[in-house]
Amino acid sequence: MLDPIDEQSKKKAYDFFKTNLIKKEEIGKTISLQKIHAYLFEGLYPFAGQIRTKTISKDGFVFAVGDFLSSILKDIDRMPDTTFEEIVDKYLEMNIAHPFMEGNGRSTRIWLDLLLKERISKCIDWSKIEKKEYLSAMKESPYNPSSICELLKKALTEDVNNREMFLKGIDYSYYYEEDE
Fold it and tell me: DSSP readout, 15-82?
């Protein structure tokens, strides 16, 4: 079951589909991810849309060190993102950077779908990816990105303008974050 903050941000995520918040030239850049995060978590977290300055970790994995994060994000912004493989590489680097104190996964999955839609006219049908498989592949991705790349590739769809696909993706994205 979702906590109250996730319930509220999930409602905002449903509405995100209707916004024109992200400019075309911002897609795939940190600024677009910040806008997504701010939209989802404004009023819920005092740091909504703000790049963290502290170093954080999860399950023993240390994400990008806070002192170097802005430099790392500039490098990610410069990464190529014209093919599926380049986009996934960029997504994985952004996950390792983990630019926010909380809400990275939910924001970054939307960011990924916007990038895929803009660059290759596809998105992920998140309902085709089991939670345990996804979480396991993401944990492994800093050392072996092939598992997550294959999972995402198998779930690609050209149904990019389907609102129901987007809403279903939001449901799965938040489900991935729920504690068992």
Answer: HHTT---S-GGGTTSHHHHHHHHHHHHTTT-TTTTPPP-S--EETTEE-S-GGGHHHHHHHHHHS--S
What amino acid occupies position 44?
L
Q: Whole-angstrom Cα distance, residue 134 to residue 176? A: 8
Domain containing residue 138? 4-177
Q: Both tokens of residue 28?
A: 């795939």
pLDDT of residue 20: 87
> Measuring CA to CA, which residue among 176, 180, 114 is closest to residue 151?
176
User: Hunting for tokens 């068992």 — which residue is that?
Assistant: 180
Q: Check: pTM over 0.90? Answer yes or no.
A: yes
- Positive/negative CA dihedral, 61, 109, 77, 17: negative
**Whole-angstrom Cα distance, residue 7 to residue 12?**
9
Stretch (H or E) spanning 165: helix 163-177
Q: Write the pLDDT tens digit of every residue in 9-18.
A: 999 999 998 8
Alpha-carbon distance of 84 to 151, in angstroms, equals 12
Give whole-number Cα distances, 175 to 1, 105, 161, in Å.
9, 11, 22
CATH code assigned at 143:
1.10.3290.10
**What total of structural domains would you count in the chain?**
1
**Token digits for 12?**
């905002």
Tokens encoding 164: 């129901």
